Amino acid sequence: MVVLFSLLIILQFAIIISHDLIDIPGLVHGAQIQAMIGRRKVWLATLANSIFPGIAAGFAVFFWNRPRPGYVPSYWLIYCGVALLSAIGMWYIPYLRGAPDKQKSEYLGMYAGTRHILPARGDNPRPNLFHIGIHVLFAANFCLALAIRTRHT
Description:
Layout lengths: L1 H17 L4 E2 L3 E2 H8 L1 H24 L8 H27 L3 H10 L18 H24 L1
Antiparallel strand pairs: 1-2
């Protein structure tokens, strides 16, 4: 379980670092995001957003075959919980309840041309396929972190 979590948290870190900087037609359009908010802001946001998952991934690497102090599973659980709640707040609340016009316009511009599998709900922003995949990863990592933390105590 710890090995699976370690691999997935490293994957999560890699995705968070790269997903606004790359283009994969139909999935991720980093160039659109950079055009909307500016390359500098994207880099600053990427650096800021990579700190906490970087620590989680660093712990996974550093404690790969070593005993983990109690703060490590606690950190993983807290980080994964915050990441999951952030995804819900950024994507699913606006999708289900609506969003301000500015947010709708930004999401439409940044994620135009990407694949969506959730049905449209009026003009509410909706997570694209790539983000849904990230959110499934967040949920899986949260569940694994919870299991690891529960076993650790």
